[in-house]
Specification:
heterodimer, A: about 210 residues, alpha+beta, 4 strands, about 15% strand, B: about 270 residues, alpha/beta, 7-stranded mixed sheet, about 50% helix
């Protein structure tokens, strides 16, 4: 990839990230075109995952609850439906796995009650850093999976970096020593979501030194 | 040649007013200035009397014309203009990141005929503005002296810091200009808040609130031509002096490097 292409992709990731931070900024020209046309999602070349939005409304002043964090069962159903969509439309989709690596354990070998209290703010942080169309699920006791729609490798890396930064204050304030381990992989171009999940898990395990 | 992007994510913050009147004030000081209007709303082009309806700027950015060939003189002494085009909105939707690259390269390739190149950016950090910031060496953020405007400065600054890291290491300076500063205690508090939070980034010059600016817009003249004795004219002249010959005119590498080292933690703390 030449320098101009790298710069173009970096610019797209930057703008994508700005829109990710402010998904409802309908007042921004990135969302409302100059000629008064419908919302121009410049990144949205493919079909977005359905999100409940009133038609024809500018959301700059809208306040809405974030989509919930999915259970493992809901995550499995999402993977199934998104796999079909991926096979049909071939749009990039990134999987990020976030694991909390506890350094201290109670007598049963698991994290203490105090440590488990960390899960809620970490989960909320993951949810907040993602877009409304992205899916965040809690898998198992201390892991989360995030499905980033219309996102390629660079976007996933940006999300992972943001999440690590945003979770740092929570980890520092935690009563126990805990590390955050992250891994990501992109589905699409022949790679299915399940494969991406496994690759992301492997990446999270390798990230133990972070 | 100094290249400056006038940017703020808040609409109505005074970007076009600052770009046009600063350009006029610099022209009055004998500097040659080029204004590039990257806002599809074409307010700067309107103000300088050169609104175009064709595709010219769009064609320059997709490579079928050179940007220098689009430069037109204006009635303002020392100021030339690259007018905007409504097709820029189309370009944003279709070219995406390639548009940013095209803008950055077009700015870099400009002939060095001008002492200042001032880019009037649209009120959003989309591909047009990102392209401008990727091609210039300086960013100028006009901030209305109002509490709502104050809260928007730190995020813009944080994004500029990140853009410098990701896209343009040559982006060496950021200037914050308090605008529409009225005589109220609130305005004074806001300006003090800006200085407290952003220190030497904030200019000593305050652009005072003046109805002459709006009247000048109606007359399609810069305020220093429309009302040369007004407080607004004096303020823009002072701003031009400060930018061209004050401390912010120092841009050697030593100053830039240490300044960025101080700026990054400041932006991170305010994120």
């Amino acid at each position: 990839m030449d320098a101009d292409s790298r710069l173009a992709r970096a610019a797209e990731a930057f703008v994508h990230d700005i829109e990710r931070q402010e998904p409802d900024s309908g007042g921004s020209p990135a969302a409302v075109s100059v000629d008064g046309g419908e919302r121009a999602q410049t990144h949205d070349r493919g079909e977005r995952s359905p999100a409940p939005r009133p038609p024809g409304r500018v959301h700059s002043l809208g306040v809405a609850d974030s989509p919930p964090i999915l259970t493992a069962l809901e995550w499995a159903a999402t993977v199934h439906s998104e796999s079909a969509r991926l096979a049909r439309y071939h749009r990039p989709l990134a999987i990020v796995i976030v694991c909390l690596d506890w350094q201290e354990h109670d007598g049963s070998g698991g994290p203490s009650e105090d440590a488990l209290r960390l899960l809620r703010p970490v989960g909320q942080t993951l949810r907040r850093q993602a877009r409304a169309s992205d899916r965040v699920a809690r898998l198992g006791r201390d892991s989360f999976a995030i499905m980033l729609m219309e996102t390629a490798d660079l976007g996933a890396a940006v999300y992972a970096a943001r999440v690590r930064d945003a979770c740092r204050p929570w980890l520092a304030a935690a009563p126990v020593e805990v590390d955050l381990r992250l891994g990501w992989a992109v589905a699409g171009g022949g790679a299915m979501i399940d494969t991406a999940v496994l690759a992301a898990l492997a990446g999270a395990r390798r990230d133990s030194a972070a | 040649m100094r290249t400056v992007a006038v940017i703020n994510r808040k609409g109505g913050s005074g970007k076009t007013t600052t770009a046009v009147n600063l350009a006029a004030a610099l022209g009055e000081r004998g500097k040659r200035v080029l204004v590039i209007d990257l806002d599809p709303q074409a307010s700067a082009s309107d103000w300088l009397g050169n609104r175009r309806s064709g595709r010219q700027l769009f064609d320059a950015l997709v490579g079928t014309r050179e940007l220098t060939g689009l430069v037109v003189p204006t009635s303002v002494s020392g100021v030339d203009l690259v007018p905007s085009s409504p097709w820029l909105a189309t370009a944003e939707r279709t070219l995406l990141g390639d548009l940013s690259v095209a803008i950055a390269r077009a700015i870099e390739r400009l002939e060095r005929r001008w002492a200042f190149v001032i880019v009037d950016c649209p009120p959003t950090l989309s591909y047009l503005a990102v392209g401008a910031l990727a091609g210039v060496q300086e960013a100028l953020i006009p901030v209305e002296a109002h509490a709502i405007a104050l809260s928007g400065v730190a995020p813009v600054l944080s994004q500029i810091v990140r853009l410098r890291s990701d896209l343009n290491p040559r982006l060496n300076w950021v200037t914050i200009v308090p605008c529409r500063v009225s005589r109220t205690r609130h305005a004074r508090t806001v300006v003090e808040g800006l200085e407290q939070e952003f220190g030497e980034l904030v200019t000593r010059t305050r652009i005072r609130e003046s109805v002459r600016v709006a009247e000048a817009w109606e007359a399609r003249q810069p305020v220093i031509g429309f009302a040369p004795e007004s407080s607004a004219s004096a303020d823009y002249r002072m701003l031009a002096l400060e930018l061209s010959e004050g401390p912010n005119s120092m841009h050697d590498d030593r100053v830039s490097a240490s300044w960025w080292r101080d700026l990054v933690p400041l932006a991170a703390a305010n994120r």
